[in-house]
Amino acid sequence: MQTQNLFQKTLAYHLFQEFQTLYRFKYVLPKINEITLDGLRFDVSDLSTKIRNRLLSGAYEAHEKKMCFDFLTQGDSVVEIGAAIGFIGLLCQKKLGLRNYTSFEANPRTFQILKRNYELNGVEPRVWNMALAHADGFVDLDVGTDFWENSICYNNDSQNGVKTVRVPAGTLQTLLQVAGHKVNVLIIDIEGAEQFIDLGQIPAEISKIIIELHPKVIGQETVYNIVASFIGLGFRVAREEEDTFIFLRK
After folding, report:
1. Is residue 95 part of a domain?
2. What pLDDT was estimated at residue 7?
3. Can you tell me the distance from the alpha carbon of 122 to that of 99, in angstroms, rounded to the nearest whole number?
4. Closest CA relative to residue 189, chosen from 77, 110, 75, 73
5. Domain assignment present for 86
6. What are the tens digits of pLDDT across the range 147-205?
7. CATH number of the domain that 85 lies in?
8. Domain that residue 205 falls in
9. Cα–Cα distances in Å, from 160 out to 21, 59, 144, 149, 202?
10. Is residue 226 part of a domain?
């Protein structure tokens, strides 16, 4: 009898949890159009309920945020590649006081959200709608998923039912030239396109790199090769949290 009662209570608990989740995603999250994170305002009206839920959970970009707070200083000059909705950029500029900060975001739709978020927080955006790629020109970007899953398509994916958009693209060297200011910090989160970075183009003055690597996209061996290449350039792994790294060099 006790076992049966325990089973019934456990089942009722799980059913209640499932009901709460369904109710949240169907009735609560769709009505939320703006949220506040770390004292910053974000327009979420064009984002999916999955993204809204992740943002509200406090888990979004948690590792990158902590690394920025722990390793960046007011005097750093940053280029961020894969700026998404502007969370890390606004955090660095509004909370850490960084003045030289340029962002690149490949997805045109996400780029517009980023600009709205900068406006909401009273920051003049220095942002460019460009992707990082292995060569200058244009690339096809998968935009049929949430922004944190957008990736560059190199295998005629647009002919296989994947929704894509052609966007301007440049090498790391080109993006640094477009930024137009001296840079000593790179922040990179580009959903697998990190495999196309020509590491030989990293200037000697770059001393800090915060980067999220994506083994599910590029494979674990490629991740190891990227880490080894950074070490070969004189960087050391100052911290690794899941797949997010900060590399430092003197």
Report:
1. yes
2. 62
3. 14
4. 110
5. yes
6. 655 666 544 444 455 788 899 999 999 999 999 999 999 999 998 899 989 998 899 99
7. 3.40.50.150
8. 59-134+170-248
9. 34, 33, 12, 17, 35
10. yes
What CA–CA distance (Å, rounded) separates 41 from 110?
A: 16
- DSSP-derived letter for residue 191 is T
Torsion sign over Cα 60, 141, 220, 228: negative
Nearest CA-CA partner of 118 in 59, 53, 40: 40
Q: What are residue 35's phi and psi, to 5 degrees?
A: -130, 165
Considering its fold, how many domains does the chain have in total? Answer: 1
On whether residue 87 sits in a domain, the answer given is yes
Count CA atoms closer than 13 A to 195's CA, side-chain side: 18
What are the tokens at 14? 């799980």
CA distance 30 to 25: 7
Residue appearing with tokens 């049929």: 144
Q: How far is CA 196 from CA 134, 172, 233, in A?
A: 5, 9, 17
The CA-atom distances, in angstroms, between 211 and each of 7, 54, 140, 175, 227 are 46, 20, 22, 16, 10
Inter-residue contact 208 to 71 (CB < 8 Å): yes
Please write the tens of the pLDDT for every residue from 221-248.
999 999 999 999 999 999 999 999 999 9
> What is the value of pTM for the model shown?
0.87
Torsion, Cα 152 58 78 85, to 10 degrees, reads 50
Cα gap 56→37, rounded to integer Å: 8
CA-based torsion, 156, 159, 160, 162: positive or negative: positive
Residue of 65, 53, 55, 72 lying closest to 183 (CA atoms)? 72
